[in-house]
Amino acid sequence: MRSRLRRGFTLIELLVVIAIIAILIGLLLPAVQKIREAAARMKCTNNMKQIALGNMNYESAYGMFIPGVSRTGCCWGTWMIPVLPYMEQDNLFKGYANFGGNDTTGPRYGAAPNNQVSNKRLSSFLCPSDLAKNWNGGSLTMHNYVLNAGNSNFYQVNTPVGCTNGSTTGANGCVVYGGAPFGWYEDPASLAAGGDASPPAYGSDSPELAKGRARAIADITDGTSNTLCVSEVITAPRGGSDIRGFTWWGGGAGFVTYQTPNNPAATDVMTGGGCGPDTIPNFPCTTTSTSTLPRMQLARSRHTQGVNAAMCDGSVRFFRNSVSVETWRALGSAMGGEVIGND
Length: 343
Prior knowledge:
Number of helices: 5
Oligomer: single chain
């Protein structure tokens, strides 16, 4: 009778089985994470492609690329508004008031009726590798994609302001502004040295005094396949006042290639916005614009070792953090005439 009894696992055998299962899980998890990140990158790539193609469709309709910001500066709309009809969001576009208006009395991004647009979380403007967040604990949403404001700064002048005898890639420590596919603040050097985004001659029809001046495709003399259109930023921590990733606001809607992607030592200069108290780990931020370090936001992502970026012709590439600063700055300029490196 005793010989017929089924023998159970001993404690040692059970521990061995558990150890084997743990090892298998340990081997499997990295593969699952890689698959998940690959899927996220693919979705992110598709989102960027849609934005770049939306810009090209806008250009076909109006003969100009979409403006980076409204002509009224920071708070009356960014490129996210005019691109909406080309991203299957025509109803939202029609609900936004005073984009491109020539007065400051119309509603801003956070006031009715515009808040019915800016509190919407649009999946086409979100990278799946990041977390969906609202700005400063409110209802206004944050997103991940930003347009190329050039190789220097948001004022679209040389960096440091007033420097000479440099180049678009930074020879002799002077980064010469080499043009951009999208207009931003284009302020005189006196304002670029540390002022805010308010136009010096508000309401003027002079293109040099209006924000977000639209560019024709003919202005992209470096070629649309050699000029960045859109890249990524990381949304700031949930509930914090850090404004990076708040793309309804002019200072959060663009990026420059002054420093390489995900550079942990490079500073985002969010003049007119906020940097904390919960700043993004390892990514420095300040709200003070100076002539040495003017207003700018840099490309960042939660992808491993780099960022996605779409070119102005609609193609999308992955750029590693190790890309040389010379190549990255050359890709940021629209009319610099540089020879693009192989990195």
